[in-house]
Amino acid sequence: MKQKVINLLSQYINELTPQEIDSIIEIPPKSEMGDFAFPCFRLAKTFRKAPPLIAQELKERIQTPDFLNRIEVQGGYLNFFVDKSSFAKQIVDNYFNSANYGGSNEGDGKTICIDYSSPNVAKNFHVGHLRTTIIGNSLYKIFAKLGYHVVRINHLGDWGTQFGKLIVAYKKWGSKEAVEKNGISELMSIYVKFHEEAEKDDTLNDEARAWFTKMEHGDEEALSIWKWFREISLKEFLRVYDMLHIEFDSYAGESFYNDIMAAVIEELKEKNLITVSDGAQIVNLDEYNMPPCLITKKDGSSLYATRDITAALYRKNTYNFSKCLYVTGLEQKLHFAQWFTVIGMMGYDWNKDLVHVPYGLVSLKGGKLSTRKGNIIYAEDILKESIQKIRNIISEKNPDLPDKETVAQQVGIGAIIFNDLYNQRIKDVVFDWDKILNFDGETGPYVQYTYARAASVLRKIGDIPKVIDYKLLTDEASIALLKEISRYADVVKDAAEKYEPFIISRYAIAVAQAFNKFYHDCQINVDDETLKYTRANIVYITKEILKDALSLLGISCPEQM
Ligand code: ARG
Predict the structure, then answer these.
(1) Residue 367 to residues 86, 363, 370, 426: CA-CA distances in angstroms?
(2) Atom of ligand 1 nearest to the CA of 336
(3) Whose C-alpha lies nearest to ligand 1, atom 3?
């Protein structure tokens, strides 16, 4: 509609380009002032006339087209009142004519790599990793909706000196049975034991380094223990991914790059970027006001950054990405800034396409989350607790609900995801169960409940022909809902540009609220068939959009709640 107003105005104002008109047009704060306003102040100089006079003259010249109800002059403004039924028609037609409403093909032919989740082998999958998993998955869905080919990469933390320590600890204090039985928690506890003992006996550290060096050189025994730890860990990670219905295209973790790292270090040397400092090889970043990027330690072993640089080169070659995103906590900001710079120094201008997508911390309100040993909060426990709480609510409020267990899973998981994605990534996430699970708040359950309500209305009506009388959609609640519906594509685009899923979650809330107002104001299942089907079509569109928006967050919708 705005574009139509711009086109109309440019027919009458040669002094301004359509782009200029676009930047001048305003959306008035109140609906009495129209849907669009064109301030004439910019034209005063050119026309040597007072703005109200310019507005008046324009009004007299412009022939009111069908899509406008009327044009009014208010002071120096020309106010446009859109014809509500043509507006309604345009939105509804637009919806039914597009195969991927809200999406686009801007990403056709382009690939985006998203590196997310990436937990560390032999360490628990904690709530921080839950955030990267949820945010990364949502970004994947958002970019896929815009037509991008997305490669979902789980850059497992499965390499590094800590595995030398684990092998030493396992050989000294571990047992096969205990690891098999308790998995990651056993590995964590022997790891803790290692650090306690190494405080007293530094030779343990030398042993650990030696084992990692063995790993880097392909020693069979070292690698088989390491591989086993990796499998045990992955099995636990997969439990979380299954609960969230999340998949990856690649599990090429840090270890994957072991064989090709040497060539990259060689390239760094050839390009004269390496300085040796105290036996270690570093890239000096003084010029960029950053501490040096560490490439190898004194004993020759590689580091986190070495593997990231190697992985980036590998991904560029393999996928030829137009962007590669890295979703991690904010505390890794410097790490990414450093090695992105190193890639640039190597002469690769595509380092501008590497994007760190940071997020804030997780904190607990009241601190009453069930924790296992050592106050570590496992992602799996949080998800299970949420599902259990929903199960309890269902048995109390709606014990006869069909397929209760699936609903409890969808709502319990949805609540956690929605809470995570409700604010800007960088904000901390607070776990406050009363808020997260509030069916009347701005929550996942609220949006899902709204969806289920729409689904239930439609079930009662049965088949819905596309009988729509647009004049019946001009009341305030219908128009407000249609306005929300019309925003979807802009919202998705904006969320992608900013790498911010919260833009989608806020939108889902806005649609749900507009729908609930519509549901309250406009009776749907009425005798008059035209009115009934007109409104039912709007219910249908809303329902589909809610489902789609939630799916972009990684949340699925029960038909009944
Ligand atoms: N494993 C790391 C961690 O848990 C995250 C890895 C992120 N991705 C990367 N390419 N550095 O903190």
Answers:
(1) 54, 8, 9, 21
(2) 11
(3) 119
